[in-house]
Amino acid sequence: MRRHPFVLGVTGNIACGKSTVLHMLAERGAETLDADAVYHALIAPGAPLWEALRSRFGSEILARDGTINRLALGAMVFADPAALAELDALTHPAVVAEVLRLIEESRADVLVIDAVKLVESGLAEACDALWLVTCDPDRQVERLMHRNGFSREEAERRMALQPSLDVKRARASAVIDNSGSIEETRRQVAEAWKQLPILH
Fold first, then answer.
1. Which residue in 180, 187, 188, 182 sits closest to 136, CA to CA?
2. Which residues lie across from 188 on neighbouring strands?
3. Long-range contacts, stretch 180-188, CB < 8 angstroms, 24+ apart
4. Is pTM beyond 0.70 here?
5. Domains in the chain, please, with CATH?
6. Is the C or the N end of the chain the one with fewer CB within 10 Å?
7. pLDDT tier at 87 (50, 70, 90 boundaries)?
8. From the centroid of its chain, how far is CA 170?
9. Measuring CA to CA, how many Å separate 175 from each of 21, 78, 132, 158, 170?
10. 197: number of Cβ within 10 Å
């Protein structure tokens, strides 16, 4: 029977720097899996999840080439908490099922899953350890403005709609504060990596 990989979940709210931590883990030989990339693949035109989103939110979320315009969809759901909850109800089961399939296929020693809603979607149940990446809120707002082209008002609104960190923090075996320099983050990742049970 093939050995199952050690699954490390990495979570944190928007623009906190999860991708930076993921890159550092990849440098240490871990296989990485971005739940957002999985979602992007699942909403390819004609796919079941694409059909479900078009049916629920209408053709106005489609770009000219038939792909889902994630900015248009985001603008719609982030202005309406009920719509956001419906989007989560449609997408979470599909993403979780695909990630679980990819875990089963993985031959890595350590597989890292990066997901904003790792805990809320239930994916955390598939993880052997969980890290929370945090960041100073002002830095997050600046990153959102720079990365997504949001106004400060829109960036702050998106931040306000993020899930509470309390539940994530309670589940985390390590907290990586990504507010400082790359070197400081790298040091924290190295320390947390050393504590993983698979290395002992």
1. 180
2. none
3. 182/20, 185/17, 185/20, 185/21, 185/24, 186/24
4. yes
5. 6-199 (3.40.50.300)
6. N
7. very high
8. 18
9. 11, 27, 5, 22, 10
10. 9
Give the number of other CB atoms < 10 A from CB of residue 133: 26
Proportion of the chain in helix, strand, coil states, percent, rounded to 5 = 55, 15, 30
**What is the residue-wise DSSP string for 45-98?**
TTSHHHHHHHHHH-GGGB-TTSSB-HHHHHHHHTT-HHHHHHHHHHHHHHHHHH
pLDDT tens by residue, 119-139: 999 999 999 999 999 999 999
**What would the two tokens of residue 129 be?**
């350890």
Residue 3 tokens, joined? 């050995």
Tokens found for residue 130: 């969980």
**Measured distance CA(133)–CA(105) in Å, rounded:** 27
Tokens for 117? 């809603």
Q: How far apart are alpha carbons 53 and 57 in whole angstroms?
A: 6
